[in-house]
Amino acid sequence: MNVKELMKRFLEEEGFRYEWDEECVCFKFQGLTVNVLFYDSLDFLIGFAVSYDTELPRYVTLDMCNELNQTSLLKYYLADDNTIVALHEEFYPEEEVGNESVMADLELLVNGASYCRNRMNELTSYLSHSANKMVN
């Protein structure tokens, strides 16, 4: 079973609403927008991607992504427009993969995205507090 067939079966059996095109499928999972990217040359690999904007300075965001990448199964990248992308590319579908396995990977992504969001909030609070101290 290829990546596209696996995702289509999963989404339909689990009752997800989704948008589908040749390159990816997009759906909501526990409040996150998830994109599953399809690579013709790597049909065995699924990339779960979540992205969100940040108001943090670019150097702080890059440092945070590097910190998270050292301890996480997910990989965090910073796009040119200051959008953080969390990516999970470790999923290799096989014929016997069930919906539980896909759901477990989605849970990993949600937990990682939540951790990243919390870390961003901590850094935002710290920078705001530091800026206020300098003004006073």
Q: How is the secondary structure organized here?
A:
Layout: H1 3-14, E1 18-20, E2 24-29, E3 32-37, E4 46-53, H2 58-71, E5 75-78, E6 83-91, H3 99-135
Antiparallel strand pairs: 1-2, 2-3, 3-4, 4-6, 5-6
Structure characterization notes:
α2 (58-71) packs across α3 (99-135). With 136 residues, the protein is an alpha+beta fold. A hairpin with an 8-residue loop joins β3 (32-37) and β4. It contains three helices and six strands. The mean pLDDT is 79. The chain has helices at 3-14, 58-71, 99-135; strands at 18-20, 24-29, 32-37, 46-53, 75-78, 83-91. Helix content is 46%, strand content 26%.
Q: Which features characterize this protein?
A:
46% helix; alpha+beta; 3 helices; 136 residues; 6-stranded antiparallel sheet; single chain
Number of helices: 3
Largest sheet: 6 strands, antiparallel
Please give the order of strands in the largest beta sheet.
1-2-3-4-6-5
Going by helix content, strand content and strand pairing, the class is: alpha+beta
Beta strand count: 6
The level of helicity is 40-55%
Measured distance between first and last alpha carbons:
63 Å
Calculate the mean pLDDT score and round it.
79
Shape: elongated
Q: Give the DSSP E fraction (strand runs of 2 or more residues).
A: 25-35%
* Sequence of secondary-structure elements: HEEEEHEEH
Unreliable stretches (pLDDT < 50, length at least 5) are: none
- Radius of gyration, in angstroms, nearest whole number: 17 Å
